Amino acid sequence: MTQKRVLSGIQPTSDSFHLGNYLGALKQWVELQDGNDAFYCIVDLHALTGEIEPALFRKRTLASAAQLIALGISPEKSTLFVQSHVAEHNQLGWIMECLAGFGEASRMTQFKDKSAKGGADSARVGLFTYPMLQAADILLYQAHYVPVGEDQRQHIELTRDLATRFNSRFGETFRLPEGYIVKAGAKIYDLQEPTAKMSKSSGSVSGVLELLDSPEVNAKKIKSAATDAGREVKFDEKEKPGISNLLTIHSSLSGRSIADLENEFVGKGYGDFKGAVAEVVVEYLRPIRQKALELLEDERHLIDLLHEGAEKARVVASSTLSNTYKNLGLVK
Ligand code: TRP
Q: Whose Cα sits closest to atom 14 in ligand 1?
């Protein structure tokens, strides 16, 4: 059998995913469902390391699930579930914490960045142990591949180190996972600040295209995107970051090459070009938004789908966990 096990996770930390999430990672999740045994996890426990607003927390977890299904994650083809529904994540997480060194955990750059932001006193222990929980997410499913962005490379390396350490001390238990790092070509930038990554935390509200925003709002954001000096529609990330970003967005969604798009807009201005980009984005997102909103209307059904996913996930997770406990000498 050539099927590979794939696992990835996303935090339910916003009301809507944005186009950067989609083109940078989630589109790849959809593609990897075919021909692989894919597990996709909404990592709500990881999200607890940020601000906790209970009503919002619940809403965002369900909105995340609805969007993932709407953009093509099929609960039949893959296993879609919520992390807190499968208690084995916490259980193996503890084992990983007992395996990891304080020093190596202190070197995680995401921890250093995030804890530096709020000042050392407001940093929580959960932020520190976050990578060990992530290692558990991955190792529980014996994943071959972990599709993630470049920023997660260090966490995958740590996961491999922990797995290697465990296997050599306690016997072969975990498969060594490989990061499946998204190609840089799919990277898109803030519409207002086209040198900064499109991101909810760092970007401007008007620079981020949200999947659940109305077509009107998204069209308006594109039409008021920052452009560059000159008037030629040409891909040049250095001199024309704004236009290059819009070209990438159009090309990624329409499937047309950048060269083809440049040709089409020879002799036309930025205005025409932005109109065309807006049209492509809006038409691409329209059915996704519609489907997500539909799913959110029937919460019971959506939660049932997630419970079914958790059940499938638990079969794999519990088998890995009990093998881990056995190899550690825990009495059954
Ligand atoms: N840390 C990841 C991020 O911020 C989210 C995540 C949690 C994850 N567990 C995972 C990603 C397991 C891949 C596999 O994007």
A: 8
Q: How far is the CA of 160 from the centre of ligand 1 (A)?
A: 14
Q: How many Å lie between the centroid of ligand 1 and the Cα of residue 83?
A: 11
- Strand-pair partners of 145: 6, 178
CB distance 222 to 191 below 8 Å: yes
Q: What's the angle, vertex CA 157, arms to CA 95 and CA 320, rounded to 5?
A: 35
Token representation of residue 159? 């996961």
Q: Is 114 a catalytic residue?
A: yes
Pocket of ligand 1 from Cβ distances under 6 Å: 7-9, 11, 43, 46, 134, 137-138, 146, 148, 152, 155
Annotated active-site residue in 59, 197, 220, 234: 197
CA 152 and chain centroid, separation: 10
pTM of the predicted model, to two decimals?
Answer: 0.94
Provide block-wise average pLDDT over 10 residues at a time, the chain (332 residues): 90 95 93 96 96 94 98 97 98 98 95 82 89 98 94 96 98 97 76 90 84 96 93 93 96 96 94 97 97 98 98 98 98 93
